Every structure is written in structure tokens, then in C-alpha cells.
Amino acid sequence: MYAFDIERPTTIGDAVSALGHEEAQALGGGQTLIPTLKQRLAAPAKLVSLTGISEMKGICTTDDGSLCIGGGTCHADVAAGAGAYPALADLAGHIGDPAVRNRGTIGGSLANNDPSACYPSAVLGSGATIITSNREIAADDFFDGLFTTALEDGEIITEVRFPVPEKASYQKFEQPASRFALVGVFVAKYADGVRVAVTGASEGGVFRWSEAEAALSANFAPEAIEELSVDGSGMISDLHGSGDYRAHLVTVMTRRAVAAAH
Amino acid sequence: MPKDGGIGASTKRREDVRFLTGNGNYTDDINLHGQAYVHFLRSDVAHGLINKVDTEAASAMPGVLRIFTGADFEGVGGIPCGWQVTDRFGEVMQEPAHPVLAQGKVRHVGDPIAAIVAETYAQARDAAEAIEYDIDELPAVVNMKDALKEGAPKVHDDLKSNLCYDWGFVEENKGAVNEAFEKAAHVTTLELVNNRLIANPMEPRVAVGDFNRSTGDHTLYTTSQNPHVIRLLMGAFVLGIPEHKLRVVSPDVGGGFGTKIFHYAEEAFCTFAAKALNRPVKWTSTRSEAFMSDAHGRDHVTKIELALDKDNNFTALRTDTHANMGAYLSTFAPSVPTWLHGTLMAGNYKTPLIYVNVKAVFTNTVPVDAYRGAGRPEATFQLERVIDKAARELGVDPIALRRQNFITEFPYATPVAVEYDTGDYHATMDKLQEIGDLSGFEARRKASEAKGKLRGLGINCYIEACGIAPSNLVGQLGARAGLYESATVRVNATGGLVVMTGSHSHGQGHETAFPQVIAEMIGIDASMVEIIHGDTNNGPMGMGTYGSRSLAVGGSAMVRATEKIINKAKKIAAHLMEASEADIELKDGAFSVAGTDKSVAWGDVTLAAYVPHNYPLEDIEPGLEETAFYDPSNFTYPSGAYACEVEVDPETGRVTIERFSAADDFGNIVNPMIVSGQVHGGIGQGIGQALLEACAYDENGQLQTGSYMDYAMPRADDVPFYTVDHSCQTPCTHNPLGVKGCGEAGAIGSPPAVVNAVIDALQSGGKNVTHIDMPLSPSRVWAAMQG
Questions:
Q1: Is residue B593 part of a domain?
Q2: Residues of B contacting chain A (CB within 8 angstroms)
Q3: Residue B526 in 3-state DSSP?
Q4: What is the pLDDT of residues B520-578, one digit of tens each?
Q5: Rounded distance, CA A76 to CA A42, Å?
Q6: What span, in angstroms and rounded, lies between the C-alpha atoms of A1 and A108?
Q7: Mean pLDDT of A31-50
Q8: Res. B735: pLDDT tops 90
Q9: Is this entry keyworded Oxidoreductase (chain A) (predicted)?
């Protein structure tokens, strides 16, 4: 780890101004950034810790029934407190291990947009809205490929607003070593249609499987997508599985998510 | 039995009190006054010519004390190899130099180019980034068969080729074996890989070097399984320090699994630099460094053939193995694919003719050496896989085929040079069928099928050679060491005992089990016995712990020394009671005169030894302290039968282990709880090898599994609750305790059971899959199912 300065603002406003400093880097729960710093793979001059900002923590329900989660809320708190959206609580409760879940935050995970992370699939699969320090971004506009998002420099995810579906499920097939998602599929059934978001699989990061969405919107049953397949050529291929294997798992995990949705 | 636990008691581990309360004293806990820190600049290319290492700017960085490169070790010895194998043509193996820091070339990712000593780790790392070095990358050899091709890049330019040795065993049998294959009614052939593993002890390696300028004494604190061996190897072959001026201390060590047997460059460097700088020098490996500098394990590529007659009797076995040595010869590397592997190829079976060919190959990868089981898992895996395949090809029950070919008469001389003293393979198989409820398997298979899962049952038998080893025998086989063990038993005036053993405990529970043996012999509480190990300044020369040898060899030395103590104590007791020595009996911690009510307590005798007022000074010396060295006359041969039941998810290829049963014969057992723990841990590691672990290099020699993000270690939820049984006991006939050793059995016996089970599951689902190379990851199993 190289030497760095650290600031611990207690309001979003202070955090934004601290991040205005050149070479400043926001620090959420640190589950990706701290190991990166330890490996000396990043050298920010200043870290701005977001963990002391109480207005960015917690879970509430809006008048229209959406579930709002503060950007600084850790996974364990979502697992325990997002009972209104069981599939989301279940996803949060199966990220990493207890240490990760008690440190890592939803805002940190989304801002990092690791192609194997779980949360991006829930956000995209729910058509959630990402609320930042200066605007609202629709999930469909937020994710922009591996480790890339619509966030601008110094912009902080303060809240994520999830419309609660009639039914949903997240099915994760774990990479054996890291236990990140080798393939994770989030399926959510809303009154106006079904959304299917896939993480872990694609070279382009989290994506919506629109063919499956159409078929499941017509008939929300596993057999509705029996004949569908995903092309393995755009899929990640590595030690843990070929593109074809991941493409196959997308279909299996989608069927299982539909069957498990509640 | 003494009230707090003699032989056979499941006494709780006394060392766990300090480990579980955070009071262990590990090498990294040792911090010396004025200590400096070393960081190693390691090669990021697998093979390259070093043109330049310019340390000038880096040397001027804050806190830097000195930067060392290979040039500083000109005239210093290299890291030695402790075993010389002679090939099938009578030539000795090719043995390359292994400098402490790279000289001229780097030969694997992780090879140390420079060592930066500074006031802090951070300063040393900063300076490492300022070193200007220029390395011309050369084509790397990674694949063993490619490495042996004509014109392949050479790992060592001064060697004839990348072939370390071409070993045949037993070379004289080769013709007869080939003839038996020509006559065979059936031949089963299998090509397989025994996957390369990284040992991953929880505690990474650490070394602290210290030098006392006023006395000229060197001290090395290091995470070793055998500090005396490190003292000898490093002192005599690397740094030229006589043993009486060098102390090596290995305090609490957090797991070894073999990879902490070997003498490593970092240990020599810290010792060397401490003198050069007149400062203690400390190195603590990061986990990333451990992946690229701890010796790896396994990495064999094998073709095995089994010949059977028309009645399904095994008539001959032939194997052809390539064994990866990595870039340099680690301390015992040459012995692993040869004498620890070829000699086990008979397994539990009376195959009359066996020929084993092993080509050891240099590649641009981390050196490979012993890892839990060392050669014996590789032997067992190929043998038990080919037997299983034969059973399928012949349409016979795999248990019946094994039973039909079991060795049943002991002692049994195998065609591969070893003589099994005892065993009862039908008994362990009977026990396995009982504890594993194998007759209930078909019902469990149906239940799995009802859930959409394929269920398989895999059987495995193993034999291993432990308690290494008879020194005269291993000397003939190329060992450059003896393999005895030592113990000094010191009885204090008030009756307590301190035992200094050459065995080293790094998780085995010696501090609990060893006192149980002595307590049993004398009839006192085990709490009166303290075990001291891990410091060359305490006790005699010892050979350390590996090869399931501590109780069989180290324990035997302890028994011999204690017998000497008892003999002397009887003389003292005879004097105190004015009786004949021949009439003295020792029972429950008291000496009595046979046929009388006269007795003296153990403590009265020990006090007399140190306060010899009324004492036979004309016959014996005061004091009560004895030393014994024990050199075994044979290996020990633990054996067992294992059963694994798996479920395979046919949609994803994911394998889960549903049941695992192990029936082992370890001979006599001192502490059944510790033995069960050893078996559990071994099976866990074996399941890791079978399903999860694989060290992978790309074609350029880059380590692809450089962290736990890609190297899959087994976790608690990857393994089931085990059913283990050690009640089948055929005691070893040639050591005083009748013990055989249990540390490696689980890791040897489990991988073939798992793979056999997966193949069984896939075949039950109509998939024509006859083999999948480990690890049986979901993607590999799924790919195999696609045909």
C-alpha cells in the first residue's frame, strides 16, 4: 500500500467537495479497493471514506411501494432489512462471506461494476433507479461495460430505488475459487412485463436477456424458455469455464430463477 | 492407564489452549531489537536473460540499508538438493545450480532477482520499484512433453537437456512385464494428469536471521518442519557455517503439508544478510509470494496399463510418467516421483510384474516437491483409477475385482522392492462396507435420481509407505541424509519429564500424544511430561516431521530413551530398597520388589538421582537423562478402504459430496481423536485436489492461479461430515509402539474415491465418460458430459 491521505466526511455535501480534490478516490466498504491498494495496483493521493455518512445508510419504502436503499448500506443490512423485496434480500445475504457482507456496500458494488458482482443484476433486473449526489440514473443507462458506469468523477451513489416486483429470484452459480458469480441471473416479474438480467457471463458485463424477457412476459414458466439459447461467443472464457459453458448456465440459471421466483 | 490419558485415550490437545487463545508463538511473532526487513524483487517473466540490475538509484532511497543481487552470492553455495536419483542407464540425474538470488537468468515467475533490506517493509518495497532492471525474455517451457522435444528452450543452459532423469523401476523386470502384456486376456489403459497443487498452509513462510558479532553465532528463526535439517543444509552447503555456530529455531508453525520441509533461498538470505549488515533481517512472505515461491506439489502426467488374465487376476502393470521438477531441484524433489512413488505401485494387490518409468523434467515453473502424501497419492490415484476402469470394461463389481486381487499373506514382498509387514485388506473393506452402508447405496441413488441428480459410488483402496525410513536403505537409493529420529528424555529431580524430540509439530498434536506414550510407560499423569521441539539448541540432531513418521520413528526414539530411563531408575530403586535389580517392577508410577510389599514412588527415585546421598555411585552416575536415536528397519504400511458418494447436477456439472467413509488400518493408536482429525484433514485436502484445486500456468509460464480468486481451496461447505473408523488394527511388527502413521492417508485415499464416484454417477446417467482429469470442476464435468 502506498501512503495516502484520508478524509471521513459525515455529509454527502462534504463528501462531494472532498472528492473534488484531484486524485481523490471514494472509499465505500473497501472490499475491492483495499485489496487493490494492498497490491499497490492503485495509488490515490486521497481516499474519501463514505462510511461515516449516516444519510446514505438504511432502507425505507416510498409511498409508491418502491424499496430505497442508501448507497452506504452494507450487504448484511440489506439481507436483514429488505424483507419487502425477498429476492433482493436473498441476493445480499449470499454475497461473499460475513466479513464482506458487513463491510461491502451496495453503492460501492454498483460503482465498481465488477462483471461478476451480484448487485448489478438485481438493479438492472429490477429496472431500479440509481440516485447520485446530483441526478437520477435509470439502471438501463447506468452500466457501461466492465468496471465502467455512467458515474462521473466525484459523483456518489447515495441511494438505489427498487420497484418491488410481483415475483423475483436470483440464482447464482458460483465460480469455485472466488465464489463470485460465474453466472448469476436475476429474474423479476412486474405487472408490465418480466426483466431478466445476467451477471458474471458476458464480456460486456451485466446485460438483459431480452429474448427470455419476451418469452417469460408471455408465459412466466421455465418451459417458456426451453428452446432459447444464448450465444457463447460474447461470453467470458477463462480457467473456470468456457464461453459456451457460461452461455449454457445462463439458460439453466434463468429457468431455475423462474421456477424459484416468489 | 494413567488417569489423565495414556495410550488409547482421546485426550484433548493441550497445545490448542494457546493456539485458540491467540497465544501461539509463530515466527512472525518474533521481532528482534534493531530488526530490518527484506523484500524480494521477483521475476515477472518465466524465463529471461538478466542484462542489467541497476540498484544505484534504489539504494539511495529512504531507509534502504543495502540491496543484494546475484553478484553478492558469487562464491556462496547454492540451495542444495538432498536426493540423487540414478537413472535407468546407471547415470546420475542432471543437477543444476540453484543460486540464492538469480544469476544470469531468471527461470520462473517468482525467481528472486534482488533483495532489498530496509528499515521498514514499505521502504523496501518502494526501493524495489526503483530498481532498474533489464531482462530479455526468452521462450519458456511449461509443458513437460514440449520441454523434452529436440530444440526446446533449455531451462539450464549448462545441462544437456531439460531431462533431469529417466528412471526405470524395476528395470530388470521390463522385459517380463512386456511379455505379460502380450499374453494378457485384457488390457486396460488410462492416461491421466495428477494436477499441480499449491500447499497453502495457513501460516505463510517467515524467516528471521540474526548474528551475534561478539560470539560469531548465527541464529535463524524459520517456519520449518525440520530445523536440524535446515541447519545442516544451509550451514554446510550454502553459507559455510559450522553447526556449532548456527542455531535454527522453528517455533509454532501453522501448517506445513510438506512445503515447509525444504530449505529455501529466503532462509539463507536472511542469515547471510544479518551478518553482512550486522542487523537482524526479517522476511514474511505475502500470500501472493507464497503462490510463486513455496514448492508446489504433484504435477504428474501418466499413462498406466493394467494386464489381466481371463479370470481377472492382475498379471502385470506398466506405467509411463512425466514428473515436473519445475525450474530447480527442491530439497527432496527427485525422490518423490521415484522412490516414494514407484515403490507403491503394487498397492494392495498381488500383481506379480510391475514396471514404472518416470521422466523428471525441468520447466520454467516453481519447483515441485513433496506435498502431503508425496508420490504415494500419485501412485494410488493412477492404480485405483485404472482398476476401476478395468472393472467397468470387464463388467465386474469394482469391490469384487479388488478383493480378488488383494494381498492376503504377510509379510509380502512386492515386485517393487518393498516388503509389507502386516495388513488385512479384506478387514478394512468389510469395515468400509459396514460403516458406509454400501448395501444401501442403490436406494440412495434412486432418491437422488428422483431429485434429478446423478449419484455415484466410488471405491478406493490404498497402501502407503510411512515412517520413513531405514537410513541404510534410503542411502542406497540416493538420499543424502539419514532418516532416523532422536529423543532426549530429561527427568527432573521432582519427577517431571522434559522430552526433547527431533520431530516437529506443526499441527500434529505431538505435545499431547507424545506424553501419553511416556505416561503409559511409567504409569504417571501425562501432565508430568513436557515436549520440547523446534530448536537445534535443545536436544540432539533430529530429522523432523514428514512422511507420517513422527510417532513411528520419533515416538520410537522416545520409547527407547524412556526404556533407558526406566532401566536406570530400577537400579536406583533396587539400591533404595536393598533388593536385586532383577526383582524390581514398575507399575502405576511406583517401583516395587516382586513378591513383597516394599515400594518406592517414582518421585523418590528421581529425587535420589539428583540428591545422591543414598545412591549406588560406584555403579551408576547421578542424574536421570537419556538419549536415544531410532533408525527404523522398514517402512510402515498403513492401508485402508474409502468410499465416496457424490451427486452430479446433470444440468451444470456441479459435483457435491454426499457421503464419505474411511476405514483405515494405522496399527496401534495413541490418541484416536487426533488420528480422526488427521484423517479428516487429509480427506479435505484430497477432496480439494479432486474437485477444486489446480495450479495453472499459461504457455508463457505466467501463473494464472496467483491468488484465491482463481486457486480454489476447499471450504467447510465443500466437504461432508465424514464417517471414519480406525478399528481395524494390524500393528506394525518392527517398531516398539506397533504404530504405522496416519498423517497422509486421507490425502492419498480420497482423490481416486471421488473421481471413481463421479465417473460412476455419469455412467449411471448414460454418459459414456471414462475419465476426467482433476479437478472435477463443474465446467470440466459439464464439458465431459457433452461428449
A1: yes
A2: 122, 125, 288, 651-652, 654, 691-692, 694, 696, 704-705, 708-713, 775, 777-779, 782-783
A3: helix
A4: 999 999 999 999 999 999 989 999 999 999 999 999 999 999 999 999 999 999 999 99
A5: 27
A6: 20
A7: 95
A8: yes
A9: yes
**What separation in angstroms does the CA of B629 have from each of B489, B500, B508, B537, B636?**
12, 12, 21, 17, 18
For B254-277, how does the pLDDT look when each residue is reduced to its tens digit (9 = 90+)? Answer: 999 999 999 999 999 999 999 999
Domain edge (last residue) among B231, B258, B284? B284
Span B30-78, pLDDT tens digits: 999 999 999 999 999 999 999 999 999 999 999 999 999 999 999 999 9
Which of the listed residues B262, B284, B306 is the one where a domain comes to its end? B284
Residue B7: is its pLDDT beyond 90?
A: yes
A140 Cα to chain B: minimum distance (Å): 29
| Predicted pLDDT of residue A22 | 85
Decide if B588 is inside a domain.
yes
Task: Specify the pLDDT at position B5.
Answer: 84
Q: Sort strands B419-420 and B412-413 into parallel, antiparallel or unpaired.
A: antiparallel
Domains present along chain A, CATH in parentheses: 5-49 (3.30.43.10), 56-162 (3.30.465.10), 167-260 (3.30.390.50)
Tell me if B665 is assigned to some domain.
no
Q: In this structure, what is the dihedral angle of CA atoms B414, B419, B422, B427, given to the nearest 10 degrees?
A: -20
Q: Which domain holds residue B274?
A: 205-284
- Contact in structure between A75 and A105 (CB atoms under 8 Å): yes
The CA distance from B323 to B217, in Å, is 40
- Which CATH number belongs to the domain containing residue B213 in this structure? 3.30.365.10
Number of domain units in chain B: 2
CB-based contact B375:B337 (threshold 8 Å): yes
Helices B425-435 and B398-405, axial angle in degrees (round to 10): 160
Domain-embedded: residue B223: yes
